[in-house]
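Exercise 7. Given the encoded structure of a 262-residue chain, write a plausible sequence.
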C-alpha cells in the first residue's frame, strides 16, 4: 500500500498524471463520471473505484479535482485519511493549511502547481509541503511529478507566483503564437504557411536556447544586426514596452491567485 497511488479526478490533469506515472507506480483512480471512468479503465488498464476503496488501499492520494469541487472531496476522503497517508493537491488557490484543517489529525499534505504541457510529459510543476509533511514526502512528490516533466521545490508563499509564471504560462505562449501567426497572415501568407513558419521558428529557437547554454538576450543580440530588419521589429516591441507588459500581466495573474486562495 505504501507505494500505491490513487488519483481522485480523471480530468485533463488527472489523466496526464496517470499517463505519466502508471509504468512506475501501482495506480488506481476515482472518477465520478461513469463514462469517463470506463474510458480510463480501458485505455490505461487501471482499477477504477469509489473514494473509500481508492483511499483505503493507497498510501498516496492525489486530489486532481477542480477548486469548486474541492470541499466536497475533502469531506468524502476525511473519514479514511490518517497520518500514514500522503495527500497531494493540484488545486489552484487551496493552501495546505486549508486542507490540513479539514482533514485533521496532522495529515501530511503536499501542494503542487502543474501546467498543461504535463499532458505530453513536458510539464513544469511547483511543489511545496505543508506543516506535517516531511522532506521524504517532498522527494516522493518530485519523483511522481518528474514523470510528467520537471519540478521545482519552493516555499508555499511562492506558489501564487509559480501559478502566474508556469501555471498560466502556456496561455501566454499560445497567445504569442496566435498573434505571430495572424501577423504572418497579414503579410500575405496563407494559414498553412503561416503556421509552419511560426511553429518551426519557435521550436528551433527554443531548442537553440536549450543547447547553447546562453542567455536569451545574448542569442537575441546575435540575430539583431544594427539597423537591420530584426532591429526594426525590436524597436516596435520596445517602444510598446513589451517587458513592462509581461511584468504587468504576471503581476495581475499572481494577484488573482492570491484573491482566489481560501
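Solution.
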Amino acid at each position: 500500500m505504501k507505494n500505491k497511488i490513487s488519483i481522485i479526478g480523471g480530468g485533463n490533469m488527472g489523466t496526464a498524471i496517470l499517463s505519466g506515472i502508471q509504468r512506475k507506480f501501482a495506480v488506481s483512480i476515482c472518477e465520478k463520471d461513469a463514462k469517463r471512468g470506463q474510458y480510463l479503465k480501458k485505455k490505461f488498464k487501471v482499477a477504477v473505484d469509489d473514494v473509500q476503496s481508492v483511499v483505503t488501499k493507497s498510501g498516496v492520494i492525489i486530489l486532481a479535482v477542480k477548486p469548486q469541487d474541492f470541499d466536497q472531496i475533502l469531506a468524502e476522503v476525511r473519514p479514511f485519511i490518517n497520518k500514514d497517508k500522503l495527500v497531494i493537491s493540484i488545486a489552484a488557490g487551496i493552501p495546505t493549511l486549508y486542507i490540513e484543517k479539514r482533514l485533521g489529525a496532522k495529515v501530511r499534505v503536499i501542494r503542487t502547481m502543474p501546467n498543461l504541457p504535463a499532458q505530453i510529459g513536458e510539464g513544469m510543476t511547483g511543489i511545496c509541503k505543508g506543516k506535517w509533511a516531511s522532506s521524504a514526502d517532498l522527494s516522493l512528490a518530485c519523483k511522481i511529478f518528474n514523470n510528467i516533466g520537471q519540478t521545482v521545490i519552493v516555499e508555499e508563499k511562492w506558489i501564487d507566483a509559480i501559478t502566474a509564471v508556469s501555471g498560466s504560462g502556456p496561455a501566454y505562449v499560445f497567445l504569442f503564437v496566435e498573434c505571430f501567426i495572424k501577423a504572418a497572415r497579414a503579410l500575405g501568407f496563407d494559414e498553412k504557411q503561416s503556421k509552419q513558419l511560426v511553429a518551426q521558428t519557435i521550436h528551433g529557437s527554443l531548442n537553440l536556447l536549450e543547447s547553447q547554454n546562453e542567455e536569451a538576450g545574448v542569442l537575441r543580440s546575435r540575430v539583431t544586426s544594427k539597423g537591420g530588419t530584426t532591429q526594426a521589429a525590436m524597436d516596435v516591441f520596445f517602444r510598446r514596452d513589451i517587458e513592462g507588459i509581461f511584468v504587468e500581466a504576471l503581476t495581475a495573474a499572481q494577484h488573482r491567485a492570491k484573491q482566489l486562495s481560501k
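Remark. The chain has a mean pLDDT of 95. Students should compare their own answers with the one above.
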